[in-house]
Write a structure and sequence with these properties.
Blueprint lengths: L2 E3 L5 E2 L3 E2 L13 H6 L17 H15 L26 E2 L2 E4 L17 H4 L9 H9 L4 E7 L2 E6 L10 E7 L10 E6 L4 E7 L2 H7 L8 E7 L1 H8 L3 H21 L3 E5 L5 H8 L13 E3 L8 E10 L24 E2 L6 E3 L1 H9 L31 H7 L10 E3 L1 H9 L27 E7 L8 E5 L6 H7 L18 E6 L3 H7 L5 H4 L2 E8 L1 H7 L3 H22 L3 E5 L4 H8 L6 E10 L8 E3 L9
Parallel strand pairs: 3-13
Antiparallel strand pairs: 1-2, 1-17, 4-15, 5-10, 6-7, 6-24, 8-9, 8-11, 9-10, 11-14, 12-14, 13-16, 18-19, 18-21, 19-20, 21-23, 22-23
Helix pairs in contact: 2-9, 6-7, 7-16
GO molecular function, one term: oxidoreductase activity
InterPro entries: Nitroreductase, Nitroreductase-like
Organism: Physcomitrium patens (Spreading-leaved earth moss)
C-alpha cells in the first residue's frame, strides 16, 4: 500500500397510487418500427414546431431537469420516502427462450505470464489476441461480469467488475459479432448475462448483414452495445437516477476499454448512430414512457425496457477504422427474427416522469457522421517515481472494490497522487491537454469537457487546500475568469511540469469536502476528494442536447480510472453521487450554468467491515 501512517516515519506501502395499463410492445424492435424510420433516425430532430426551435426546447428541458434534480442542504432532489423492498428490481436481465451459450471462466492468476502488469497497457500496445470464444469470454469476464459475492447474516449480494451507483447496475451489454466457433456458426447479436457468465443469442444474422454493419472496421472486430434500465436506479434514487445511469454507462465504457487493451484490442465509440438505430441494432423495444411528473405507482412494465445508449467498436490494436461505418441500420435489422422475451424485474413500479422527459430530450435523434478516435500507447505515461503494486491488469479490474468508509490516519505520497491524476488526463503527459488519446479516453470522440476540482487533505509535501486539474487547457483562461478572483492559480512547487494542476486556495478543507458531499465523512477521511466540473450549457450548445448524457459518460470514465488506479496502488476509491450541487459552485465562485459539478469521488485507505464475508463470483448462489 502506497500510503503513509500519520505520526509514523515508516512509509508503507409520499407517493400517489395509480394502476396503469402497460403501453408495452413486443420484446424486440419490430420490423414495422425499425423500417418506418429507416434512413432518418427518429423524426424529431430538425422538426420545426410552433413552440420554437426543437434544440432550444430540448435544452430547456435538460437545464430544467438538471436544476430540479440538484441536492440542496434544505431540499434534496425528489425520491421515494422509503425503499419498497418488495419491488426492488432484479439486477439480472434475462431473455427467456433465447439460446444460451456458456462462456469460459478465466480467473485471474498472478503466475500466468500472459497477463500484463497494470502499467504496461498504457505504455505499449500488446500483440492482439485472435477473436475467438476464449478471448470474447475474457473480454466480458474482465469488464461486466461478477467479481465476487458478499454475505452478511442471511443476506447475499453480488459485486461486478464495472462499478454502479448503489450497486444497482442499470447498464446492460450486447455483443454484435461475426461467427465464432463455439458461440454461433453465423454472425449474431447477443445479450450478456453476468449472473451465469453466458451469452443469450438474441438473433442470428446473415453474413451480408454483418458485412454492412462492420463496414470500415478491420478484420477481427466486434461491436459492443450498451443500454440502461432507468427503473433500477429510480427505485432508490428517484428523479436523480438519470444522472446515475449515465455515470454507469461511463464506468462500463471504461471497463470494456481496459479489458480490450489487455487483449491487445482497441475500443472507440461509434457516435453516429441515433438512439433509434441503436435500439434496432440491439433488438430493444421501441417504447415511449409517460413523462407525467408523478410520482405514480402501479404496474408499468414499460419502465423495465432498456434505453439505447451507445455502441463501441472493438478491434485489434495497430489497425484503424478505414471509413465511417454504416449508421443507417434500422431497415437492415427490420426483418431480423429476435429470440427471447425480456424477463420481468419487479411486480410494481414507481414512475418519475421527469427522467423520461430528460431522456427523450437528450436522445440523438438522427444519424450523423462522427469523429473516429482510438487510444494510443504513451511511453511517457509514468511521470513520477511512484511504484505500483505488482499486480496484473486482470487482478486490478476484478479485485476493484468501492470503499464504504476510510481511515483518516493515513496520508498519500505525493508521487502517487500526481501519478493517479496523470492517468485521468485525456491526452497523456507532456502534451497540451484536450484531445482524447490516452487509454481509456481514446474511446470518446470528443475533446475533454470535464475538469477535476480537488480537495487535498493528506498528501505528503502538498499543502491542504483546493486545487484544479485542467483536463482541457483550451478552457484554462475561461475557468480562471469565471472563478473567484482571489484564487491564486499557482503551480505547486513539487508538481511535475507536465501536469496541469493549479492551487486555488490553501487551507484545511476536510470539513468543507464533507459538507459539500452531503455531509458524508468519507469525503474528508480519504487522502483527497474531488468534484468533476463539466463545461455544461455551452457544451450542449456546441454539440447538441445529446451532449448532456455524454458529459456524465465522461465523468463515469474518469471515475473508473480513479477506481482502478487507486487499487493498483493498494488503496481504494469511492464514487459519490450525493453532493450539494450549487454550494460546490459557490465555493468556486461560479454563478451560472457555464460549468457544473456532475460527480464526486474520493480515494483513501478502506476500513474493512469484518462482519461481511467475501465469496467467489462463480458459481453464483441460487438466483433470487
Amino acid at each position: 500500500m502506497r500510503a503513509v501512517k500519520l505520526g509514523s516515519r515508516i512509509y508503507g506501502p409520499g407517493w400517489g397510487l395509480k394502476r396503469l395499463s402497460p403501453s408495452f410492445v413486443s420484446s424486440s424492435c419490430s420490423a414495422r418500427a425499425c423500417a418506418s424510420s429507416a434512413g432518418t433516425g427518429m423524426a424529431e430532430e430538425g422538426r420545426t414546431t410552433q413552440d420554437g426551435d426543437p434544440v432550444d426546447l430540448a435544452m430547456s428541458v435538460l437545464v430544467n431537469y438538471h436544476e430540479e434534480t440538484k441536492h440542496r442542504s434544505r431540499k434534496y432532489a425528489r425520491g421515494p420516502h422509503r425503499l419498497d423492498w418488495a419491488n426492488q428490481p432484479n439486477p439480472f436481465r434475462r431473455y427467456d427462450g433465447a439460446r444460451v451459450v456458456p462462456l469460459d471462466h478465466l480467473p485471474e492468476s498472478p503466475t500466468r505470464s500472459s497477463d500484463p502488469l497494470w502499467p504496461v497497457i498504457f505504455e505499449e500496445s500488446l500483440a492482439p489476441k485472435p477473436l475467438d470464444k476464449s478471448s470474447l469470454s475474457q473480454l466480458l469476464y474482465d469488464s461486466l461480469a461478477l467479481s465476487a459475492w458478499k454475505a452478511a447474516r442471511r443476506s447475499t449480494w453480488s459485486l461486478r467488475v464495472n462499478p454502479s451507483s448503489g450497486n444497482l447496475h442499470p447498464t446492460e451489454g450486447y455483443v454484435i459479432c461475426d461467427a465464432i466457433e463455439g458461440v454461433s456458426m453465423t454472425p449474431f447479436v447477443a445479450h450478456y448475462a453476468p449472473y451465469e457468465h453466458v451469452l443469450e443469442i438474441r438473433a442470428e444474422i446473415s453474413v451480408e448483414k454483418w458485412r454492412y454493419l462492420s463496414s470500415g472496421l478491420p478484420p477481427g472486430s466486434l461491436l459492443f452495445g450498451f443500454s440502461s434500465i432507468f427503473w433500477r436506479e429510480s427505485w432508490k434514487y428517484g428523479e436523480r437516477a438519470f444522472r446515475y445511469c449515465n455515470h454507469d454507462v461511463g464506468h462500463a465504457i471504461g471497463a470494456v476499454a481496459i479489458a480490450s487493451a489487455s487483449l491487445g484490442w482497441n475500443a472507440c465509440m461509434l457516435d453516429g448512430y441515433s438512439v433509434h438505430e441503436i435500439g434496432c441494432l440491439l433488438g430493444l423495444p421501441q417504447v415511449r414512457v409517460s413523462t407525467d411528473r408523478g410520482p405514480v405507482r402501479g404496474v408499468m412494465r414499460e419502465l423495465e425496457t432498456e434505453h439505447a445508449d451507445c455502441v463501441l467498436a472493438i478491434f485489434p490494436s495497430g489497425l484503424t477504422i478505414s471509413e465511417q461505418p454504416n449508421y443507417q441500420v434500422a431497415k437492415l435489422m427490420g426483418d431480423v427474427k429476435w429470440q427471447g422475451q425480456m424477463s420481468a424485474l419487479s411486480k410494481e413500479h414507481m414512475s418519475w416522469g421527469i427522467i423520461y422527459e430528460a431522456a427523450q430530450a437528450s436522445e440523438k435523434s438522427a444519424v450523423t457522421s462522427a469523429a473516429i478516435t482510438r487510444s494510443l500507447p504513451l511511453p511517457d505515461s509514468i511521470i513520477t517515481s511512484a511504484e505500483y503494486e505488482p499486480v496484473t491488469v486482470r487482478q486490478v479490474v476484478r479485485k476493484r472494490r468501492s470503499a464504504e468508509s476510510m481511515d483518516s490516519t493515513y496520508a498519500m505520497l505525493a508521487e502517487v497522487f500526481f501519478q493517479i491524476l496523470a492517468k485521468t488526463l485525456p491526452t497523456g503527459s507532456g502534451e497540451t491537454q484536450g484531445a482524447p488519446r490516452q487509454l481509456p479516453f481514446g474511446a470518446l470522440p470528443w475533446n475533454a469537457e470535464v475538469h477535476l476540482v480537488i480537495f487535498a487533505h493528506r498528501v505528503v509535501g502538498l499543502q491542504p487546500g483546493v486545487y484544479i486539474l485542467v483536463r482541457n487547457e483550451a478552457y484554462t483562461k475561461e475557468l480562471a475568469k469565471l472563478m473567484k478572483p482571489e484564487f491564486s492559480w499557482e503551480k505547486p512547487e513539487i508538481c511535475p511540469p507536465s501536469l496541469p494542476l493549479y492551487a486555488l486556495q490553501y487551507g484545511n478543507v476536510t470539513g468543507l469536502a464533507q459538507r459539500l458531499s452531503c455531509d458524508q465523512e468519507i469525503a474528508g477521511d480519504g487522502f483527497f476528494s474531488l468534484g468533476m466540473l463539466a463545461r455544461f450549457e455551452s457544451a450542449m450548445r456546441d454539440f447538441g442536447p445529446s451532449m448532456y448524457p455524454r458529459l456524465f459518460w465522461e465523468t463515469g470514465l474518469i471515475g473508473q480510472m480513479l477506481y482502478l488506479e487507486a487499487h493498483a496502488f493498494g488503496v481504494s476509491g469511492t464514487g459519490i453521487g450525493c453532493f450539494f450541487d450549487d454550494p460546490v459552485h459557490t465555493v468556486l465562485g461560479l454563478k451560472d450554468n457555464k460549468f457544473q459539478s456532475l460527480y464526486h469521488f474520493t480515494i483513501g485507505v478502506p476500513v474493512e467491515d469484518k462482519r461481511i464475508q467475501t465469496v467467489p463470483s462463480y458459481p453464483a448462489p441460487p438466483e433470487i
